[in-house]
Amino acid sequence: MHRLEHSLHPWVAFAILPIFAFTNAGVSFGGISPTALAEPLPLGIAVGLFAGKLTGVCGACAALVPFGLAKLPEGATWRQIVGVAAPCGVGFTMSLSIGSLAFEGSEYYTPLRLGVIAGSTLSGMTGYLLLRVGSEHSRTNS
After folding, report:
1. Helices (H), 25-107
2. Taking Cα atoms as reference points, which of 103, 125, 57 lies closest to residue 65?
3. 47 touches 117 (CB < 8 A)
4. What phi-psi label fits residue 74: left (phi over 0), alpha (psi between -120 and 50 degrees) or beta?
5. What does pTM read for this prediction?
6. Each residue of 48-93: pLDDT tens digit?
7. φ, ψ for residue 35, nearest 5 deg
8. Of 1, 37, 49, 77, which residue has the fewest beta carbons closer than 10 angstroms?
């Protein structure tokens, strides 16, 4: 069972669970073109999730550490802190909920969902890459 669980984990985490989440949230990619990401609403939501969360978390760390109100974990680099802060922009359920309160009307559903998916994907990928590069960099320097 243990081997089966570990062999199924990537399929569940990266395929089945996202498909379930999209279906449960009513996300449909039918009729969406790649240029739809460049429209103001999805672009604003994606940038807000990515840059806003990243700036807020890193800004709080940068403000608290110099004053001794917080300290970086031993051996942690600022690249790693940014790498940990980036996935904070992954916010599927709450972002959709807040967005549906902010933008009433069915014409906003698709752009809203598209922006949340794009911002969450960008945040997750950035965090992964920064941590991956940060951990390889720290291994070669030790």
Report:
1. 40-47, 53-64, 78-85, 92-102
2. 57
3. no
4. beta
5. 0.76
6. 999 999 999 999 999 999 999 999 889 888 889 999 999 999 887 7
7. -70, -15
8. 1
